[in-house]
Amino acid sequence: MSVISLRRLRRNPQIRSLVAETRLRAEDLILPYFVIDWKDRREPISSMLGIYRFSADNLLKELDEVKALGIKAVLLFGIPDKKDNAASESYSDNGVVQKAIRRIRKEIKGIVIITDVCMCSYTLHGHCGVIKKSKLHAGTRDFYIDNDGTLKILAKIAVSHATAGADFVAPSAMMDGQVSAIRDAMDKKGFSDTGILAYSAKFASNFYGLFRNALDSAPQFGDRKSYQMDFRNSKEALREIEQDINEGADIVMVKPALAYLDIIYRAKEKFNIPIAAYNVSGEYSMIKKLTSGDKAKERELVLEALTSMKRAGADLIITYFAKEVGKWLGRR
Ligand code: PBG
User: Fold this and answer.
1) Has residue 113 got a pLDDT over 90?
2) Which of 25, 73, 114, 316 is the most buried (most CB within 10 A)?
3) 201 alpha carbon to ligand 1 midpoint, in Å?
């Protein structure tokens, strides 16, 4: 008997496409945007080549283009003009994100609006929660993040986003009980249709640094390791995800993506819920640096990286490359 040929299925591009097991589609993608106040602003982010902060009017123009590329969803991050340690801009009706949501809702049809729910870009200290001075923890640290105090603020942020018209809120502070606190608060206010995309397995990662430049949200002291996950753990990630599902999450997320494909895979095997992967700022910049402006190379690398996330089991991918990918996929 002759050797079985696996190469027969690789003979030409048409045959390869015919038998491809994994397909990346524009509608799998969620595009993150950094929103700032006022009008006519479009500020390049120096640490993330090709990424900008937009004022709401310019964001609307962007979204027309995004829609035309077949992308269905955006994830909004707010950068307030003024920060304070109560994060008061984060839940204000006049906050940057709330205003942007209302404008998108009014002027653009057919875009799913997802909003990041966290305190870090709204506080002076840059932590994702409320800081308390610690006596109990004296000797180890002189401060701690107050879990339940933070839940109250996260719930207020989520309700204000839902009120403005968000389709999904995405809590990213990694506080215990954040999904149920938000679910309860939104239900009580009559927003039972607003969904929750939970940052469930969010690791304390070194791949976030550039994003923190973009949002000016780096912690001014300490680190995030008492709330974000330890990168040595995967069983714990499954516990986090399970807990968020039990608390009422509609979609769960693994973040970052590329160095955490094993977590995506295990989550997909274990749970019957849509899984999102966050292709974070450091992953974005690695590819940008590696390809230094060569668009053909960038295309091949990005498609490989994002397809690997889908192959691992991600249903949705949050990526700064979404617009580019939309263009590339459209041309195939
Ligand atoms: C804030 C938040 C971070 C990211 C998304 N939401 C940064 C952090 O936790 O420090 C990172 C996104 C990226 O790197 O692209 N809670």
Assistant:
1) yes
2) 114
3) 12
Residues 219, 129: Cα–Cα separation, whole Å: 11
Tokens matching residue 240: 């986090």
Contact 93, 131 (CB under 8 A): no
* Cα–Cα distance, 204 to 228 (Å, whole number): 5
Atom number of ligand 1 nearest to Cα 284? 15
The answer to whether residues 272 and 220 touch, using CB atoms and an 8 Å cutoff, is: no
Closest to 314 in 3D by CA, of 282, 286, 285, 274: 274
For ligand 1, mutation pick of 169, 280, 321 (most atoms within 8 Å of CB): 280
Atom of ligand 1 nearest to the CA of 208: 14
The residue whose CA has the least distance to atom 16 of ligand 1 is: 172
The tokens of 27 are what?
């509608």
Of 254, 259, 224, 226, the closest CA to residue 315 belongs to: 254
> What confidence tens digit (pLDDT) does each residue in 200-248 have?
999 999 999 888 888 888 999 889 999 999 999 999 999 999 999 999 9
Helix or strand run (H / E) with residue 14: helix 13-19
73 neighbors 30 (Cβ within 8 angstroms)? yes
Query: Are the C-beta atoms of residues 250 and 195 closer than 8 Å to each other?
Result: yes
Which residues are CB-contacts of 59 (< 8 A; sequence separation ≥ 6)?
33, 35, 100, 103, 104
Amino acid (1-letter code) at residue 120: C
pLDDT at 140 over 60: no
Q: Which residues are catalytic?
A: 202, 255
Alpha-helical segments (H) within 20-111: 56-68, 96-107
